[in-house]
Amino acid sequence: MNNKNNSALILDSLFEAFSYVSSANYVYVCDMKTDLSRWNRDAVNYFSLPSEYMTNAGEIWASYIHPDDREEFISDVKKLFSGEKSTHNLQYRVRNRFGQYVVCTCRGVVLKNDKGELDFFCGAMTNHGIENENDVLTGLKNQYGFFLELNNILAEKTPCNLIMLGFTKFLNINNMYGYTIGNRVLQHAARFLQKIADPDDRIYRLDGTRFAIITERQSLEHIHRVYNGVQERMRSYSVNGMRINLSLCGSVMKLSNFNITNKTIYSCLNYSYQISKNQRHGALVEFNNKPDKTDIDQLVKINTIRNSVGDNCKGFYLKYQPIVDASSEKVMGAEALIRWENSRLGEVRPDEFIPVLENDNVFPVLGMWILRQAMQDALEIVKDNPDFIVSVNLAYSQCEQSNFVNDVISLVESLGFPPHNLCLEITERCRLLDMELLSRIAFTLHSYGIRLALDDFGTGFSSLMIVKTIPFDIIKIDRAFIRDICENDKSEQIVKSITDIASAYGAGVCVEGIENEIMRDKVRKYQVKSIQGFFYSKPVIFDEFKSFCKKERGLL
Ligand code: C2E
Ligand code: CA
Ligand code: CA
Q1: Exposure check for the chain: N or C terminus, fewer CB within 10 A?
Q2: Mean pLDDT by 10 residues, the chain (556 residues)
Q3: Which residue's alpha carbon is nearest to atom 8 within ligand 1?
């Protein structure tokens, strides 16, 4: 029997096996060497696909996927076929044979042969039914309805104010009173919002306990006033004769610029909502949409940067800041720091877009791009300096992805990167993650050989607990403690205490933000392993960083 027939036979056997064990609506198997797939009859009929056997099914299927979801699907499939990823888990909308969009969850795995080459891609898909704009619990329109209405507003260029509201600590209510009462509270809240809103306002229930309001008439001042009243009222809210304490948080945004997408609006509203929830005790936070020095609105800027993630991360690049050994002052590594640039906006620093985008569902794509780029660059340096460590910052939303650890390990393997030359910096905001999840991720990465650093130590909450629980190799002292170290004895004391804590847990200390010799000498009195700061170098592009290393070794 020739190879071709043999491969077709395996395709059919795998397909039968998958169909047998899968409880999902549809199954598919693709031979990754020939790109021949087999899909089950139900899928072929329901979506009116060309046939059960298809070549290049990924491209055919992409043409059925909703245009807003297509890019994410195509990028994921590309990664599967390039070996960068080995699992697929996406939810998207697909057009059926009646022209309606249905929501499908698609999960799949890549099987490799004994030589480690990509062999088959097998998966199953669940059809959740027709995309519905209504929320059954409250009778309001749901998140899809909100996105559709945003599209209408953008198309018709209707100036309006957008509000996102939500209850925090709702889990307590469910735990204390049960889900039925929890649901009743949400129904009440929906009716209450309808009562206080203008008759022309549109109200939506987003995910979970969050609501959105679109209003064309109510001014920002009025919204602030009403919000404060509602917040007060919710502190002792009566449902079925019971007094329930609800904590409200919220954000608001004035929309007067229409050259943006609905997803960017959501991302910016959500960013301000998270600030309300995590930093402002529920005060209504307005999204800052002031023009910057280039006269471009913050919203437009975020929109442009967000869209470039989907455009193969165009405009993004990394700068590197050397990390030197505290005693020899020789380069031992570098921190990769993201930048974005285009001709209109110039170079944009991460502080302007990372905090907004890190809660956005495009961030994991950018995060993997950063990791890949940093490791590819670092490979060049590791050749000459096998101890060189590249440090990469992680964002909260990356760690939350169910495939995060597998994706990192697959990437390290596909690049042939030595894991101990990579250090992942867990930033302040990652600590909002469930500790159990974070420690599972950390232990797996650590046991694989990847180093871990705790970034911005001392600026947030629960720092000591995290040091105790997670196997950090490095603790980075935030610049905030170093800035005034020459004038303030307390800052020096803090540096001393952190070095003591780190050594108690077997971690090294890296001090950031050293700008001159005096600062350097102050921190060198303590058990500091490495130093980073403008005194040695600002972050520079990779070519400059290579020259920096060569100069140090006397090669330039
Ligand atoms: P970070 O991780 O604490 O990075 C160090 C920041 O301090 C960098 O700012 C660096 O340029 C700055 N810095 C270093 N030494 C000195 C100094 O001596 N003096 C002063 N004044 N500043 C110094 P940058 O590049 O603007 O990054 C800001 C933040 O953005 C980072 O803080 C990090 O939280 C985030 N970020 C940057 N790149 C990435 C990335 O690739 N992924 C993620 N998730 N976040 C990133
Ligand atoms: Ca960092
Ligand atoms: Ca830092």
Answers
A1: N
A2: 72 87 86 95 93 95 90 92 89 87 89 93 87 83 92 95 94 86 90 92 93 96 95 88 92 94 95 93 93 83 94 96 96 98 92 92 93 98 95 89 91 97 85 78 96 87 76 92 88 91 93 95 95 97 96 79
A3: 337
Residue nearest to atom 10 of ligand 1 (CA): 539
134 lies in some domain: no
Taking CA atoms only, the protein residue closest to ligand 1 atom 17 is 513
**Residue positions counted in the chain:** 556
Instruction: Please work out whether the CB of residue 351 comes within 6 Å of at least one atom of ligand 1.
Output: yes
Q: How far apart are CA 464 and CA 406, in angstroms?
A: 28
Helix axes 220-234 and 179-196, enclosed angle (nearest 10): 150
Residues 221 and 308 in one domain: no
222 and 158 co-located in one domain: yes
Distance 447 CA to ligand 1 centre (A): 27
pTM value is 0.79
Domain residues for the domain of 72 are: 2-127
Instruction: Fill in the DSSP letter of residue 324.
Output: E
Whether residues 353 and 266 share a domain: the answer is no
Q: Does residue 260 share a domain with residue 336? A: no
Ranges of beta strands (E only) in 344-399 are 346-348, 389-394
On whether residue 250 sits in a domain, the answer given is: yes
* Start-to-end C-alpha separation, the chain: 61
Ligand nearest to the CA of 425: 2
| Boundary residue ending a domain (286, 311, 330) | 286
Indicate whether 133 belongs to any domain. no
Nearest atom in ligand 1 to the alpha carbon of residue 370 is 41
Q: Which atom of ligand 1 is nearest to the CA of 478?
A: 3
Q: Measured from the CB, is residue 398 less than 6 Å from ligand 1? A: no
Same domain, 185 and 237: yes
Q: What is the phi/psi pair of residue 93, to 5°? A: -100, 140
Residue 347 and residue 242 in one domain: no
Q: Nearest ligand to the C-alpha of residue 478?
A: 3
Q: Are 429 and 396 in contact (CB under 8 A)?
A: yes
Q: Do 427 and 540 fall into the same domain?
A: yes
Same domain, 147 and 111: no
Domain count within the chain: 3
Query: In this structure, are residues 154 and 246 in contact, taking their beta carbons and an 8 Å threshold?
Result: no
Substitution candidate for ligand 1 out of 393, 408, 432, 484 with most atoms within 8 A of CB: 393
Atom of ligand 1 nearest to the CA of 318: 41
DSSP E strands in 395-438: the ranges are 422-426
Identify the domain boundary among 243, 259, 286: 286
